[in-house]
Every structure is written in C-alpha cells, then in structure tokens.
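The instructor's notes for this session suggest beginning with a concrete chain rather than abstract definitions. Hand out the sequence below and ask the class to guess, before any prediction is shown, which regions might be ordered.
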Amino acid sequence: MSDYPEPRRLGFPDEGRLPWLVPLLDAFHIIDQGVHEGVRREELQGRRLACANGCSACCRSHLTIPVYPLELMGLYWYCSERLAGDLRGRVAKQLRAQVPGQPCPFLVEGSCAVHPMRPIACRQFNVFDRVCAEGEDAFHSRRADVLTPIPRFAGRAFDRMLPFYGITDRRERREAIKTGRLHALARVLQGLEWAKLAERMDGVGVVPGSEAKGTVG
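After discussion, reveal the predicted structure:
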C-alpha cells in the first residue's frame, strides 16, 4: 500500500465571497490527484518516494519557481487572511527581507508556511528513491528520479483556471492548453516584490472562523 495519501480538496468558508478561489482550489486538487496517480504508478515499478515532511532541499535550491496570477492571488489571500500568530510575523519578516534570487521566502524552519496554497510547480515536483542533496536540483542531476506529471491532469487543472483569464470558449481553452499560452503569464516567484505582501499583512487581520476544511473531491 502506498504511503502517499489520497489527496483531499481543501475547502474554505471564503469560497462563497471569493469566486476566484473555487477554480484555484479545484485546480490544485486535480494536480494533487495527478501527482497521487503518478506516484502510484512509480511505486508499482518498485520506486519509493523520497520526498517527506521536513525535506525542503528543493525550496532552497530552486530559484526560478513559476507562479501564475491566480496562484499569486491565492498566496496574497492566504498570507493576509489565514496566517496567524508567530508564523505570520516570521513570514512577513522574510517577505520584507526577500532579495531576488534567494530561496523561497515562505520556507520557515524547513517547512512551507503556505503549504495548502503552494504553486502547481511545487506540488508536481517529487523525487524518488534518494533525498536531494543540499543545493541539488534533481531535475538536472538525475531527471529519471523526478516525477513526470501526467498530461491529462495538468491539462484539466489549467482548463479549470482559464476562465479566470477570460478564456471561456471551449475551443479557445483547448487551443490555449495545447499551445501553452497560459504559461506566458507565469512569473518567477523569487523575483517578485514580496515586501508589498508584507505591508498588506501588517494592515489586515486574520478572519475569524477561517480554518481550512478538507473535503473529499
């Protein structure tokens, strides 16, 4: 039996007042389902997933993580309205001090502070058999050990997000996915001005009753 858990779709009360959050969480769930299926297939071939809690080498070594506008909205929302207590203060401090080219500013003591809202690129990056060495990018050093996303899941996920970008026609959505048109909108996470998010976090309080709820999707 696989040690990789069946993915569950996160649910937030805010989905009722933030229409854009629904397709984002749906897309994340589809991606997570694709990763689950990909890991299952590799395990049937005798592979073992090396990624686990406490492993964050890729968060420090990957300096060009792509993030899409809808994902960016999710990060802004999650940090400003969901993070609380000491973690909120630590993340805001790191965001203010972020310099382009540095590791991910959301990494706190080896853990992702925004794990529920981590970008698709982070969700899909999984390594088998051997934990990454410090500073190693396994995609370049041992590509065969890195999970290859299953195209149909990625396609479904991006299709779910396309209406947010004004692409609603079914034929146009298919063409946008086929040509990779949406990818032109991606920005490098480490190159963004995260100090602006820190300023927003300073001025916005945590919304009461905002806990995430896992729902089977």
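Then share the key points. The chain has one domain: 13-201. Residues 13-201 form one domain.
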